[in-house]
Each structure stands twice: as structure tokens, then as C-alpha cells.
Write a structure and sequence with these properties.
The protein has helices at 15-24, 26-46, 82-92, 95-105, 121-128, 140-151, 172-229, 241-276, 284-287, 290-309, 318-410, 434-460, 471-474, 502-505, 531-541, 558-569, 587-590, 598-602, 608-611, 630-634, 640-650, 663-666, 686-697; strands at residues 11-13, 51-58, 152-156, 162-169, 418-421, 464-466, 545-549, 574-578, 613-614, 621-623, 653-657, 674-679, 703-706. The chain is of the alpha/beta class and 723 residues long. Helix 2 packs antiparallel against helix 12 (434-460), helix 4 crosses helix 6 and helix 8 packs antiparallel against helix 11.
Length: 723
């Protein structure tokens, strides 16, 4: 379905005329812009200049490592997070700080900070009629604080702990003094807050310390009373005396047992040597005896004298006999002394054995006592834990109390901020900036005057020119059954292109395309362009959508009917969609009846089952033009691609008859898989030449040709019901 091409307007905008109009009025535009710049300069001169200065504060701990509390000396974490910095920003602009700064600088007496003192006569009239709030309402202090907040700007520098205090004023001295005073008051406020915090701490700690002292005394008294009642005397190393004695007695018992074993071993060795007649010189306990050593020395001396005298005297000499007698006595004395040493060792063994038995008796007694003491220590440790916890808490409170008291007495309250950049009196105002204001006024006026000039040129018609239409644009596509300015076929989807016959792809083919040649007396039908040949090609390609253009009007539309019937006879499910204005394509298939069709479907007046009709002469189906209001149908023309998509899904092939539509008319119908077909009756018809040229210019080069000439219609078949 296609329709007549519509032009949005008969006139078009002439860009060159617009620029000519601008150039023609360049003097007025330039003069107006200069006047606006002069006015802006005059306004900038009349505006009271304002000065701006800034003070910068660094948030950091004011404590030194020597004055910081003991438990805080190790941790050196960041003082505040970003939320804390924002809280300090709000604290700086607090009413208390601004009130003190205002009183210090007597801002209430200045005209700049009291709107009531600088109200004009016009404003007074507006206030009287109720169009403006009275600036003199409220107290003078409230008005001053409001004006200060309007000129004050406090913010934190991103990703830092720096806070900037900016203040603007008509007086450069005040612009620098106010932020400095605000910073000083903020520091003083922090110091006062810390001082109050320390005072509150001392006031709270003092009664707590007094109460804790009583608790500690009571807890320690309970420990002492329990220890006395349970006979838990303390020894060295903070251990119970019974436990300590048990440990010492165990050590002593081990020592006595070792001594006894040592004495037994020595006595056994001496006894074995004496009984076996072994030399006693090999026994260390005997050799170590002083008496034995002296006797041995005397024995050696006598042997030496006997040896000396034997060289000059005989053995029977009285002197030698006397010496030998002494030597025998010495040996007897040595043997007696060895037996005495053995008796001493036996005595030591018996003594050690008795000592061991005594220690064992005492050890058993201490074990029983230690067991009792261990049970009693459970309760003692509980009381000691309570006393220790109370004592530790008391010591902690005492430390805090002494630190807070010393700070209060020494008046040492360091603030957690530092002013590292004081505001300096500005020499140049920050407002108004005359050059930017003048430049903005000039540029704004230049733009506005240029736009006004362009609009005047457009409204006067001097910048409009008639539209030059081409023959293809002026060609009517009157084959739409609806008198709409936009054709339905333009709003459809488009399909693939097919091959164009070699005789028609070349515009120089005068046998088919040239209108200057005389028509032959009888048209000659090319066998490749018959309906049967075309159907063969469609079946071979497996086409699902065929868009047929009939430049010669209703006569050419007969090809679509023949194609639909031929494909249906070949066993394909085919349907013909009639988009012509006269219904010439569907008329022969519905016997000219006025049945619902595509317009009813677009206007939502019918469903698919209502508009799909059966061809009484074949198995093909047809959707006629329809009976609905064409204007109402055109409002929903965007649904046409959806309808085509649904039909191609339900049928093997859909034939769309567009009538004498141009390239623009079928542009929206083409979808992948579609074939563009041109129905030709007289190849020398000028409309054929124009349509073929327009399609080729639009990029449709692969176009199939078909002619209804030489194809006989199918014989009548029994009537069928609609699909």
C-alpha cells in the first residue's frame, strides 16, 4: 500500500540569505553590543567593591610527647576523620563564635552588617505593600549574624585536615580581621572546652577515688583476715610457707639420701680392701687422712735409714733391728688407722640413714599441710583478685586525677588545631571584576542581537526560498486507497534485492527503457519474464517476501494475483497483501466485495482471522484494502512492519502489491530475504523508465521483471472459506 508523496513545506530556509542579513545589520549589532558593554561597565563602577581574605587552620594534636597521657604516648593515630573535620567546620561557624567576633569588632554599628541602615526608599515602599520582607525585623544582633553568615564561607580542603575561613567585606581591613578573629575564638573555644572537660573529670574523679580507697582497704582487710584464719603464712617468693617448707624439705631429703649413699659406697670399698688384704694406698678416703699421710712419711723415712745403714752394717746390728721394729709398729698403726676410718664411714652411714627417716616423717606431715593450704588458697586468691582489681582501678583514677589537677593548676590546655596561615589585608577587590563583566555583557548582547536579526529575517520571508522539486518527487503515487499524505508502503519493512534483468540494469537499453522509441504493434514477451519463470526463481531462492511495484497502475497489478495463485498451486502457502489505493490487486480474488482488510487491521477494528480471505480460484489467501477509515489507519501505520513479520512467519511467501510506488514508497518495506519485482506490461511506457531509474538511484539494483501477458488465469474453483 503506497500513497502520494507529501512535502513538509513549499519553502526552505536560505542559509546564505541569513548570513547576508547578519552582514547587512552588522553595524546595528556592533553598536548595540558596545552600548551593552558600556552599560555593564557603568554598572560595575556603581557596585560597591568587596574584598575577600582567608585564614587557614590545621587540625592536629596540640599535645607534645612529654605532656601526653601515658597510655596515649604509644598511639599516634590521626586526630579526626572526615566526619570529625566537617563537625569542626560547623563549630567554627557556630553562633557563639560569630557573636563574640561581632561584639569584639562592634559590627552592629556598621552599615554593611545591618540591612535596616541601608534600606532604600523603593524597598521601603515594597515592604509597606507586603511585596518584600522587612529587613529591619528582628534584633540588631540577629541581623548582624545573618549578614556575617552571608559573607562567611567555611570549608575543609579535600583529602586533608585543613579548614579554610573566608570572609568578604566592603572594608579590606575587616575582610582580613574577621576570619583571624573567628580562628582565634575557635581556638579559645576549644581550649575552654578542654578546660571544662578537665574540671569535670576532677570533680567526678575525686569522690570516686575516695570511695575506691574504702573499697581497697576493705578488700585488703578481708585478704589479711582470711589468711590469718586459714593459717596461710607467706614465705619467700610470695608463696605459702607450708609450700615453701615442703619444697625446701624435699631438697634436703634428696641431699641426705645422696650423702648416705656416698658414705655407704666409701665404707664398702674400705671394708673390701681391708678384708682382702689389698693395699690401702689405692683408697682415696684413707690416703686423704692426715694421720695416715704422716705415718706413711715416717715409714718412708725409716725405710730410707735402714737402707742407708744396711750398706755399712749387718742385719743383726742393734740399730738396724731398732729401726725395723719401729717400721713394724708404723705398719700396725697404719692398719689401725684404716680400721678407724672404716668405723667413721659406717657411723656416717648410720647417721645419714637416721636423718633420712626423720626427713621422711617431716615431709609426710608437710604434704598433708600443703594439701590443706592448697584448698584454702582458692578462697584467698578470689579475695586477692578483688583487692587487686580495686587497687588497679584506684591507681588508674589517681593517675588521671593528678594529670587533670596539674593541667588545671598549670593552666595548660593545648587545643587540637593550629593557625598556620593568617588572613592578609587584600589590596584588590574580588568583586566586581570589570573586564569579565564587560566582556560578558558584550558577548551576550552580540548573541541576542544576532538571534533577533536572524528571527526578523525568517519572519519577514527574506531568508526563505521556494523548494525545487524533481520529477520523481512530483510523481503522484495515487494508488493508495486512503487519501493520506504519507503512504502506508513507506512505513513497512524492506527485503533483499534480487537480480535485475540485463536489459533493464543498463539505462542505455533503449529496447526496454527509452521512451523515444515507437511502441511495437504487439508486445513481445520474454520467456524469462513470465509469471511461471518468476515463480521458478522465487521457489529456487526460497524467498519469503516479494514486493511488487506496478508503475503502469491497475493493469500491472494483475501480476501479483497470478504470482500468488501460481505459488499456491505449487503447494506453497501464499498470501497477497493489497496496498493499492483502488484495491485492484485483491478485487479479482474477492469478486469485488467490500470486505475488511489491511486498513481495518491497522485501525484495530479487526483481527487477522477477520481480514485474511480465501481466493475462490486457488489455494492462495488475500488481505484486501479494507473498509476502515484511511485516516484512522494511517495513525497506526508503524504497525505495518509488525504485520508483515507475522505474515512471513505464518506463510511460506507473502506477495505485497504496492502499485505505482516509488523508491521512497517501498523503502520501509524492504527486509532481509525480500525480492523487489517490477510488473511490466509495456516496456516502452515512460513510467517504467522513471520507476526503474528511481529504484536504481535508491540502491535497488537487483530487480526482477515480470509481465502478466501470456499467462492464462486459473479456472474457477469451488468457493473457500476465509482463513
Amino acid at each position: 500500500m503506497t500513497g502520494v508523496n507529501k512535502f513538509e513545506s513549499d519553502m526552505d530556509i536560505d542559509i546564505a540569505s541569513l548570513f547576508v542579513g547578519l552582514w547587512r545589520n552588522k553595524g546595528k549589532i556592533l553598536v548595540g553590543s558596545l552600548i551593552a558593554a558600556g552599560l555593564a561597565f557603568g554598572v560595575a563602577l556603581t557596585v560597591t567593591p568587596k574584598y575577600n581574605a582567608a585564614t587557614r587552620i590545621l587540625i592536629e594534636t596540640g599535645e607534645s610527647v612529654f605532656t601526653r597521657a601515658g597510655q596515649d604516648r604509644v598511639d599516634d593515630k590521626p586526630l579526626l576523620d572526615q566526619e570529625g573535620i566537617k563537625s569542626q567546620v560547623e563549630l567554627i561557624s557556630a553562633t557563639e563564635v560569630l557573636r563574640k567576633v561581632s561584639a569584639k569588632n562592634t559590627l552592629e554599628n556598621l552599615r554593611e552588617f545591618d540591612p535596616a541602615k541601608r534600606i532604600s526608599s523603593i524597598k521601603r515602599v515594597l515592604v509597606l505593600v507586603g511585596l518584600l520582607n522587612d529587613p529591619a525585623s528582628g534584633t540588631a544582633e540577629e541581623r548582624t549574624l545573618t549578614a556575617m553568615r552571608e559573607n562567611l564561607k567555611v570549608y575543609s580542603v579535600e583529602n586533608s585536615r585543613v579548614i579554610v575561613i573566608e570572609f568578604s567585606s566592603e572594608d579590606p581591613k575587616l575582610a582580613a580581621k574577621i576570619p583571624n578573629d573567628i580562628a582565634q575564638e575557635y581556638m579559645a573555644l576549644q581550649e575552654a572546652a578542654k578546660s571544662k572537660s578537665n574540671s569535670d573529670a576532677t570533680d567526678w574523679l575525686k569522690p570516686e577515688i575516695d570511695a575506691l580507697r574504702l573499697k581497697v582497704k576493705d578488700a585488703e582487710g578481708k585478704v589479711a583476715a582470711y589468711r590469718s584464719q586459714s593459717d596461710l603464712l607467706m614465705g619467700q617468693n610470695n608463696s605459702v610457707l607450708a609450700t615453701q617448707q615442703l619444697s625446701e624439705l624435699s631438697t634436703e631429703l634428696s641431699r641426705v639420701r645422696a650423702n648416705r649413699a656416698n658414705a655407704q659406697a666409701k665404707a664398702a670399698s674400705v671394708r673390701s680392701a681391708l678384708e682382702g688384704g689389698a693395699s690401702i694406698d689405692t683408697l682415696p678416703d684413707i690416703i686423704s687422712s692426715n694421720l695416715i699421710q704422716r705415718l706413711r712419711e715416717r715409714q718412708i723415712q725409716l725405710k730410707s735409714e735402714i737402707a742407708d745403714l744396711s750398706t755399712t752394717m749387718l742385719d743383726g746390728h742393734p740399730q738396724i733391728k731398732a729401726l725395723r721394729s719401729q717400721l713394724t709398729n708404723l705398719q700396725t698403726q697404719i692398719a689401725n688407722e684404716a680400721r678407724n676410718i672404716l668405723d667413721s664411714l659406717n657411723t656416717d652411714t648410720k647417721t645419714a640413714d637416721l636423718r633420712e627417716k626423720e626427713l621422711l616423717r617431716e615431709l609426710n606431715g608437710l604434704k598433708a599441710e600443703s594439701s590443706r593450704v592448697g584448698e584454702e588458697e582458692v578462697g584467698l586468691r578470689e579475695l586477692e583478685r578483688e583487692a587487686n582489681s580495686q587497687r588497679d582501678l584506684l591507681e588508674s583514677y589517681l593517675t588521671r586525677y593528678r594529670e587533670a589537677t596539674s593541667r588545671n593548676e598549670g593552666n595548660y590546655q593545648p587545643s587540637d588545631a593550629r593557625i598556620f596561615s593568617l588572613a592578609v589585608q587584600p589590596s584588590e577587590p574580588y568583586f566586581p571584576k570589570k573586564i569579565p563583566i564587560v566582556g560578558a555583557g558584550f558577548a551576550g548582547a552580540l548573541l541576542i542581537l544576532s538571534l533577533v536579526t536572524l528571527m526578523r529575517e525568517l519572519f519577514s520571508g527574506r531568508a526563505l526560498k521556494p523548494v525545487n522539486r524533481t520529477s520523481a518527487d512530483l510523481e503522484p503515487a495515487t494508488n493508495l486507497a486512503m487519501p493520506q499524505p504519507a503512504p502506508l508502503a513507506e512505513n513497512s519493512a524492506i527485503a533483499d534485492k534480487t537480480t535485475l534483468d540485463a536489459a533493464n540494469t543498463t539505462r542505455g537499453n533503449t529496447s526496454l527503457m527509452s521512451p523515444s522509441l515507437a511502441a511495437p504493434p504487439a508486445p513481445v514477451v520474454d520467456p524469462e519474464h513470465t509469471v511461471t519463470a518468476l515463480c521458478d526463481r522465487l521457489v529456487e531462492k526460497g524467498a519469503s517476501l516479494a514486493i511488487i511495484v506496478s508503475p503502469e497502475g491497475d493493469e500491472g497489478a494483475a501480476s501479483s494475483v497470478l504470482i500468488a495463485r501460481e505459488l499456491a498451486d505449487r503447494g506453497l502457502r501464499s498470501i497477497l497483501l493489497d496496498l493499492t489505493s483502488s484495491g485492484s490487486a485483491s478485487g479479482p480474488m474477492i469478486d469485488g466485495l467490500a470486505l475488511p482488510g489491511i486498513t481495518n487491521l491497522l485501525a484495530s477494528k479487526a483481527q487477522f482471522r477477520d481480514v485474511i480471505q480465501s481466493d475462490p480460484y486457488s489455494n492462495a489467501h488475500v488481505i484486501p484494502n479494507g473498509t476502515a477509515d484511511p485516516t484512522l489507519a494511517m495513525r497506526a501505520v508503524e504497525r505495518l512492519p509488525i504485520i508483515l513479520n507475522a505474515l512471513t512467519t505464518a506463510y511460506d511467501i507473502v506477495i505485497v502489491e504496492c502499485g505505482p510506488a516509488n523508491a521512497k514508497g517501498i523503502a520501509r518495506l524492504v527486509t532481509p530475504g525480500a525480492e523487489i519485482i517490477m510488473s511490466v506490461i509495456d516496456p516502452q511506457d515512460p513510467s517504467i523508465v522513471r520507476s526503474a531509474s528511481a529504484l536504481q538511484d535508491a540502491g535497488y539494483e537487483d530487480i526482477l521483471l515480470v509481465t502478466p501477458i501470456g499467462t492464462m488465469p486459473n479456472p474457477p474453483q469451488p468457493a473457500r472459506k476465509s482463513a
